[in-house]
């Protein structure tokens, strides 16, 4: 039996009244577990397998698909507006699409926990998402960086085989803006928009070009 703190990333109906729960755990990374009978009216899991809330879980099993034996919410979640909740769904979807190994997903757990806390009450979500994407890049082996000799007014573009390189299109993110972003300095709305544009192809590359459904909701 293993006990750990975790967040629910996704739930899938399984057989008559059970669910497969996809989790991000503190000490064991990504876990898939069957919650038997969790959809039953009298299930002990009732109300304890909700996304975005820290939950203490217990599970067992030596196979890839574990068996969830207990779950109890230990965190709090205040109702958020639509955009904030979609932003959280987006982060969950990224973690599922990336299929990180145990070491990587264990490393991302504290970043994810802090992100959910901030997104719960944030008035603007863009930069929080971009910093989380940057963390995922670093953990996946894509350490985005630029040479020191590149002038601040040089536009940047992402190329999968080269990383961030100089671009001839001024509409792209400038090197100075990216440096401010990395250093977590204050950015204006135009700079934030340019960072958003820069990261879109980066994330597309990370997930292998697969569709990120929650991203479309963020743009509505």
Write structural notes for this entry.
By secondary structure, the protein is of the alpha+beta class. It has 2 domains: 2-73, Beta Barrel (OB fold (Dihydrolipoamide Acetyltransferase, E2P)), CATH 2.40.50.140; 82-218, Recombination protein O, C-terminal domain (de novo design (two linked rop proteins)). Helices cover 37% and strands 24% of the residues. The protein has a 5-stranded mixed β-barrel with strand order 1-2-3-5-4. A two-stranded antiparallel sheet has the order 6-7. Helix 1 runs antiparallel to helix 2 (102-119), helix 2 packs antiparallel against helix 3 and helix 3 packs parallel to helix 5. The longest helix is centred in the middle third of the chain and has 18 residues, at 102-119. The radius of gyration is 19 Å and the shape is elongated. It starts with a strand and ends with a helix.
What is the overall number of helices? 6
For the record, what CATH class of the largest domain applies? Answer: Mainly Alpha
**Secondary-structure content class:** alpha+beta
Could you name the CATH homologous superfamily of the largest domain? Answer: Recombination protein O, C-terminal domain
Uncertain stretches: none
> What global shape is seen?
elongated
Instruction: Return the string of H and E elements.
Output: EEEEEHHHEEHHH
Oligomer: single chain
């Amino acid at each position: 039996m293993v006990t750990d703190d975790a967040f629910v990333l996704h739930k899938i109906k399984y057989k008559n009244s059970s669910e497969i729960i996809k989790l991000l755990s503190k000490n064991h990374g990504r876990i898939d577990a069957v919650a038997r009978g969790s959809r039953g009216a009298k299930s002990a899991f009732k109300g304890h397998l909700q996304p975005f809330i820290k939950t203490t879980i217990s599970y067992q099993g030596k196979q890839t698909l574990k068996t969830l034996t207990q779950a109890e919410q230990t965190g709090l979640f205040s109702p958020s507006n639509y955009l904030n909740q979609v932003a959280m769904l987006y982060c969950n979807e990224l973690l599922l699409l990336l299929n990180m190994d145990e070491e990587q997903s264990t490393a991302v757990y504290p970043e994810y926990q802090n992100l959910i806390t901030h997104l719960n009450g944030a008035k603007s979500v863009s930069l929080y998402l971009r910093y989380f994407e940057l963390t995922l890049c670093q953990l996946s082996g894509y350490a985005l960086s630029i040479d020191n000799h590149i002038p601040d007014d040089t536009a940047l573009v992402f190329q999968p085989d080269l990383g961030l390189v100089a671009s001839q299109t001024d509409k792209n993110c400038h090197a100075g803006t990216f440096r401010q972003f990395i250093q977590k300095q204050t950015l204006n709305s135009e700079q934030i928009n340019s960072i958003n544009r820069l990261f879109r192809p980066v994330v597309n590359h990370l997930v292998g070009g697969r569709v990120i459904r929650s991203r479309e909701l963020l743009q509505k």
